[in-house]
Amino acid sequence: MSPVDGLADDAVNGTKDATAGEVDTEHDATRDDPAPVHITVDLLALLCERAADADPEAENVVLDATPAGELIDAPTDIDPATPVLTHFYFPSAGGSVSAVFGMDLGRPAGRARFLSHPRGDRHLTEEDDLAAAVLVAVPPYERENVIAYDRRGRRRELVVVDAEPPEERVEE
User: Which parts of the sequence are annotated with region: Disordered (predicted)?
Assistant: First the structure.
């Protein structure tokens, strides 16, 4: 699905700002609140650091999750089945495969994306790559400057979890 297709339903409902190519989040109060996005504190800090290092260029990172029940030191008030963003895939992963086949086959689609908007625009735009959840960071790239959206551009609560994913090992 292209970003334009992902925003099409909002355009039909009149919530898309056609002049700026942004989704209007002021009308979110009339809709059911989408589920919150959970992310580990360490991953959020790392993503903010990457965005700051990349500035003035934009950062676009695929994220993936681990069920809360598998995390080390997970808070007990989170349902064990709740997906918590814990991993990212390097943007350059699969570059040689993409160059040959013209498609990004080197990394999974992921559950979410982290995008930085160096110009300070806090909204999703038609140019953004979308996923089930999208985190948008703006300068100065600190925790409070990261906003979560669903693929339709509705704001979602961002819940920062102080836990770690389980250690992963490659079997020999």
Answer: 1-34
The label of the residue with tokens 């903010």 reads: 48
Long-range contacts of 42-46 (CB under 8 A, 24+ apart): 42/164, 43/85, 43/86, 43/87, 43/88, 44/143, 44/146, 44/160, 45/143, 46/88
DSSP SS3 for 30: helix
Question: Tens-of-pLDDT digits for all 172 residues of the chain?
Answer: 333 333 333 332 222 332 334 444 444 433 466 799 999 999 999 999 999 999 999 999 999 999 999 999 999 999 999 999 999 987 754 445 545 555 555 445 557 999 999 999 999 988 888 889 999 999 999 999 999 999 889 999 999 999 999 987 777 7
Which fold does the domain 3-13+34-71+79-161 belong to in CATH?
Cytidine Deaminase; domain 2 (3.40.140)
> How far, in Å, CA of 57 to CA of 150, rounded?
23
Q: Whats the size of the chain, residue-wise?
A: 172
Measured CA distances, 61 to 83, 108, 172 (Å): 18, 11, 29
